[in-house]
Task: inverse folding
């Protein structure tokens, strides 16, 4: 049996691959249930589920690099709002999607839940209309 070693280091390097169907608008949904960063005030860990939804243009995000990217926040202090917007900016920079939404659902801390939603829309992209089936 051949065993290749998995990376043991987090990375901010987001890799992409060519979209096999760039002529079509279709939604890619990714859920990252084990996101962790540190509270910049207390240094205590903050836990979240990160939801990424996007309509690719020419490129898609490669999932192993996304995993290592998310891991890179484990020891960084970040406010919920800032880290959500940074993740969106980094993902948009990497793959230039037609549309992307990042939703960060932070778990309870001191009796308070926080959800932050950030979106990007390509200026020349128009979303398709809803489909209503009988």
Result:
């Amino acid at each position: 049996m051949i065993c290749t070693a998995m990376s043991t280091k987090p990375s901010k390097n987001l890799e992409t691959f060519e979209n096999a169907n760039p002529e079509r608008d279709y939604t890619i949904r990714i859920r990252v249930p084990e996101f962790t960063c540190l509270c910049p005030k207390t240094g205590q860990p903050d836990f979240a589920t990160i939801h990424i939804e996007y309509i690719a243009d020419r490129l898609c995000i490669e999932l192993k690099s996304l995993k290592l990217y998310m891991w890179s926040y484990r020891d960084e202090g970040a406010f919920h709002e800032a880290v959500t917007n940074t993740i969106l900016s980094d993902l948009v920079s990497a793959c230039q999607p037609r549309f992307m939404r990042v939703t960060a659902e932070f778990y309870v801390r001191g009796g308070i839940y926080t959800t932050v939603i950030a979106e990007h829309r390509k200026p020349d992209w128009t979303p398709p209309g809803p489909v209503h089936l009988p």
